[in-house]
Amino acid sequence: MSEIIVGLDIGTTKVSVIVASIEESEQINVIGVGTSPNEGMSRGTVTHIDKTVASIQKAVESAESQSGMKIRGVVAGIAGDHIQSFQSRGVIAINNPENEITRKDVERLIQDTKRVALPSDRRIIHVIPQEFIVDGQDNIYDPVGMSGVRMEAIVHIVTGSITATQNIYRCLERAGLEAHDLVLEPLASSYSVLSDDEKEVGVVLVDIGGGTTDIAIFEDRTIRHTAVIAIAGKKVTEDIRKVLGIKNADAEHLKRNYGYAYLPEITDDSPINLPGIGGRNPMEISKSLLCQIIQPRMEEILEIVGLEIKRSGYSRHLHSGVVLTGGGSLIKGTAALASDVLGMPVKVGIPKGFQAGLTQEVENPIHATGVGIILYAAENSMGRGHVIKLNGNGKNVFRRLINWFNEL
Question: What does the domain layout of the chain look like in residue ranges?
């Protein structure tokens, strides 16, 4: 009997829903995909609840139609410029008779690392272990089964705005859905486009979406740094619209079909015909002129990415270079521009990890987050000995959050 996981990517420009089944053999199959334009988000945060709810419902209906299933619960992604991260450290004593470290000891240590002072308007989204230290021995990644009397952990803590998080839960509740978990989007994307070898030797994931550019840095198989930049593909579209004086839809069409992010990549500088507005005569522009609008904004995004890489302190350890994904990576010449700006090898990451079903429909950088959410949920639930059941009647997470506020 297969289990079902539904991944929901609520992006600034689109909502994507992916339905996957996990067989007893742990094979993951895509059985439904739904997408819908979204006008209710700005820079990864909800700005118009009704529009966001409508987009979620439309994408869910499309996925339900393909999969033949009724969707009641989802694992959702979260991003936005409200996301912040930092390192924390915790320590506990091992007090069982044989001094053998158990899974409960690890969970107790992780809870200890959460004892950090946070502003009243923020909440912890993820606590990601980076390294365990047992009786002074460091570089331990799984201490379960080892002997020791003192165990420490260095963890990466990701926090988000309570208001922004609450608004996502509210949108899901109004759409008739139950949120089983929230996943940081760059962390999710890493599951679908990065290999274990890349994570081991050092790699930067850069997910250029519509409203935000998400960064995740990996080394020694664990995440070392995360950041969210509030400039992405939507700004490129706005630049085209303002410079050429055309509609937003026409600007988006130009960017996707004729846009180049790097002038040397243009081999055919044939003219592009643009329809006139309000009865005006059509106009004609060259691809090189369009590139001169796109390239400065893409350079700005990548230069900020470069500054974030330097700030992380891992710039000398990233031997696998950069992996680009997200809709912004599909602008022709983006990889070449990124390699020039960042001074590293760059490739475009295509989501992988599904064995059967609608695999061709999701093998596109725009679905990196949605696919990653599925893989993240499957791996973490399997690690606990069960698969998340998304069609159950568990207590609603939003209600639990409200109760927690009341108790506070």
Answer: 84-161
Here the tokens at position 136 are 């002074």
The answer to whether 217 touches 318, Cβ cutoff 8 Å, is yes
- What is each CA distance from 161 to 49, 56, 155, 168, 210, in whole angstroms? 17, 21, 20, 11, 20
CATH code reported for the domain at 84-161: 3.30.1490.110
pLDDT in tens, the chain (408 residues): 568 899 999 988 899 999 998 877 778 888 889 999 998 888 888 889 999 999 999 999 999 998 888 999 999 999 888 898 888 899 999 887 788 889 999 999 999 998 888 889 999 999 989 889 998 888 888 899 898 899 999 999 999 999 999 999 999 999 999 999 899 999 999 999 999 999 999 999 999 998 899 999 999 888 889 888 989 999 999 999 999 988 898 999 999 999 999 999 998 888 888 877 766 778 888 999 999 999 999 999 999 999 999 998 888 889 999 999 999 999 999 999 999 999 999 999 998 877 766 777 788 898 999 999 999 988 876 433 323 333 333 334 444 444 544 555
